[in-house]
UniProtKB/TrEMBL annotation:
All copies of domain SMc04008-like, residue ranges: 27-92
InterPro entries: SMc04008-like_domain (IPR023163), SMc04008-like_sf (IPR036810)
Species this protein is from: Rhodoplanes tepidamans
The name this protein goes by in its record: DUF1244 domain-containing protein
Top-level taxon of the source organism: Bacteria
SUPFAM superfamilies xrefs: SMc04008-like
């Protein structure tokens, strides 16, 4: 597979993952962290890191909006629930947040 095709496929996979996470607002970031070791915020940070490395201007707020599909504060107000004690305990023991 050539580099251009690989990059296009990887971009398509990223867009599909982001679209899936936008639809699954019932899945909390802490659940993603506890199960997979990354969350929506990680994705937005990785996007910003890639933009910075490429010299593309992208703010933290812009990268979060690109992942969440809306301003982060709006998403939090609409969909984020208080973490349960079990979720917090699992998060504290996992130490996997990037």
């Amino acid at each position: 597979m050539d580099e251009q095709t690989r990059t296009a496929l990887e971009a398509a996979v990223f867009r599909r993952l982001v679209a899936h996470l936008r639809e699954r607002t019932d899945v909390q970031n802490i659940d993603l962290m506890n199960l997979a070791g990354f969350c929506r915020n990680c994705l937005s940070n990785w996007l910003k890191d890639a933009a910075d490395a490429a010299g593309v201007p992208l703010s933290k707020d812009q990268s979060r909006e690109a992942v969440y599909g809306m301003p982060y504060e709006t998403w939090k107000a609409r969909y984020q629930r208080e973490a349960t004690p079990a979720q917090r305990q699992a998060f504290e023991t996992s130490h996997r947040h990037e």
